[in-house]
User: Fold this.
Amino acid sequence: MPQIVVEKLVKTFHVAERTPGLWGAFAGLVKRRHRIVTALNGVSFSLEAGELLGYIGPNGAGKSTTVKILSGILVPDSGNVEVLGLNPWKSRIKVVRKIGVVFGQRTQLWWDLPVIESFDLLREIYRIPQDQYMSNKNELVELLNLSVLLDTPVRQLSLGQRMRCDLAAALLHSPEIVYLDEPTIGLDAVSKLAVRDFIKKLNRERRVTIILTTHDMDDIEALCNRVLVINEGNILTDGTLANLRKMVTTERRLTVVLVNEDGDITDPDAEVISREGRYVTLRFDPESIPPAELIARIVANHEISDLFVENPPIEEVIAKIYGSAAR
Amino acid sequence: MRPYAAILSMRFRALLQYRAAAVAGFGTQLFWGLIRMMIFLAFYENSSAKTPMNVEQVVAYVWLGQAFLLLIPFRSDQELEQLIRTGNVAYELLRPVDLFNFWYSRAIATRFAPTMLRSIPLLIIATLAGWIHWGGLPSIAAGIAALAAATLLSAAISTIMTITIFWTISGKGINSLLTTLSYFFSGLIVPLPLFPDFLQPLLNFLPFRGLGDVPFRLLIGQMPAGELPMLLAHQLGWTIALVLFGRWLLRRAMAKLIIQGG
Assistant:
């Protein structure tokens, strides 16, 4: 039986609108105009225990709204949700006891308290038995390398340190399901890797079900087998990452840094798509030309100082998926 | 009860850290107390009319008002206001606790901790200076019970103030409105017995006298301690009514809630 079932979820928001200017301000006093924004337009999916789902889409696509409804914070207009067999907004207290949530842009720690006091307070709030609390805390402190941070007030932590503490805070009560809403946002490369590594362990070793929303394609590539793409409140695709990419494009980007400003690059299997000074970006299809071969050829034929291969950015992939869905 | 007790004690300990605020508040309240006392002394010296309270009682009432000033629901919880405005309230909702009780516990600590810090030194000074003539032991015991009920009542009012921020985003309006009402009708500006007779039924009905007037008059023995059950019933009755109203309001707020931002 799936752990999370979402059926035909609809959520709209009323946004007050006002004609700009002084006249608009007065008119707004008499008659308010509302624009209805559809955040979710019939979203359905289900998730088995132990899955790690990447939930992606551009800003305003409805990702956070879904996560908030799944955690019982928001009430949808219509549709049904079952999390561990319970309706999250009707049985909020029962559901939140079994889930952990991290919103990357916010913190659940008490700003003025040292981290350890926030943890202790959470122990009381979640009524975590002492021995379970101690073993979870010790494990998380070790995994996330928090021992030097525990006595620091939260306001003095860097973003990366805070995020590690926030992750620990969300897991103290051994949740069965964890929602991570942009947990790597704004983090430097080292912190990102640490967080990513931890999420992987959490899912593989503790068998925690995870829904991860992010804008970072590398997060998705490193962690998720299954990816759900949402845009304007509609689910566009649901499948593996490889399938998703294949659906849109198989292309990769090769950026080459030339030694000379006026150098040039030509290759039969790659197409130049942009050029800025010494930086040239080429597009190629790894199925028709293996990347290693292409790179070897370019290095042999041109004077270059650096090069790197990337996937097309996520926004582009999603834009393409959306474009093809609209057609 | 465990989570609620934990949040109460956390808030209490956090507030006890604000020693500078307590010292400043103590100075200010002492100063205003002196001015208010002088006004009433001048007033009584130049009036021969029969008054419902004698001058000693009024002076004591004034000083108790100064000492327990922070018991009045001054404003909504600033931290919660911030949480609601920024959308961080999402995390409050992720706790497996009843949100109203959670906030109500906080509010009790918010009223109790600073009041205690400031009232004790002020009461000692006012007593040593001979400004407060306390009632007998039963009066003081009854007064303390009424003060405890006043804390619960005040916390209920300030929790409602906090909940209204879901609609108004800023707490400024409700804060100035309800604070003024509480101030005026609890006897902190002019002792309630000195109000005109035609206002007395209204004053007796409103919840605000339970915030100050009732405990003060019990403490100085101006009202007999035997009236305590009736007075407590008035205070607690209003508290229960306001808690029920607050819970209803919060349910409405949750149903229409939009979490601001990302």
Q: What stands out?
A: Chain B has a mean pLDDT of 88. Chain B touches chain A at residues 2-3, 5-7, 10, 14, 86-88, 90-91, 93-98, 254-255, 257-259, 261-262 (CB under 8 Å). Chain B has one domain: 2-255.
